[in-house]
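ok so i was messing around last nite and threw this chain in just to see what happens. nothing serious, just curious
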Amino acid sequence: MSKPVIAIDMGGTMIKIGIVKEDIIMSSTSISADSGNGLRQRLPHIEGAVKDLMAQENLSCKDIAGLGIASPGIIDSNRKKILSIDKKFGDAPGIDLEDWCRRTFDLSFCIENDARAALLGEWKYGRATDLDNVVLMSLGTGVGSAAIVEGQLLRGKHFTAGILGGHFVINYKGEVCNCGNKGCVETEASTWKLNSNHKLPLSDYKAVFQLAEEGDSAALAIRDQSLEVWAACAINLIHAYDPEIIILTGGIMGSGSHIIPYIRQQTEKHAWTPWGNVKIEAAAFPSSSALYGMNYLVNSQNK
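result:
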């Protein structure tokens, strides 16, 4: 029987922390990410939240298998470092998180890209447990992706394989993205892009979909363009990775009842899949799949 794992999911708005054992989250909490001010200043708060959860469960560090962090950005999972990150937690590449984990908790440590972690959680415990070719697409502050091909998680030579779906170019004449490219999926439709358009009084996609339902013309235009962008991204992911299923997750999927049917319709119409249709489904654990994924990775590392 494996020991519990401390799993941390570093979101741009909230940091989720859980104690996970097998396929059960024993207890969890969230703290503000305050990601614009960096990760270093959040580490004491993360430490306090972890220790509070352990006290609730009457656990000591000796009872814990290890600690795993799911982080945005490009992650070297071998050297256990954040190589590059887009604005959120901008100081993170300069922090030795493995050393912090050892000094703070005396635990083994692993780190992985957050979309890959979420995909592993869904593959091992959620929506895709019986499949070997799976893509996850995360719609949130940005647009993330990850891929499992023939039962193997894609990482690539430089740890970017599978995770840059949000930076597929779908409008080569478009605006410059945070990554430096033009017309990326994220630049065309994501929460950060929505927030950067100060001409519109819309701060999130919940408001966009609600106002569109009420017939607001600006909201309708944003909704329709965003649906087209996300469908185009899904088609690109299908053509790139040949999955059996695309799992959709992320904060925007609160409006999934609008998003899933549209993407399903567009992929069935436009993706080149002569064998049949790729399943388009919502994540089984939309708010916690990355915690499950880090639990799996910590236990795999310890074998």
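not much to say yet. The longest helix spans residues 217-241.
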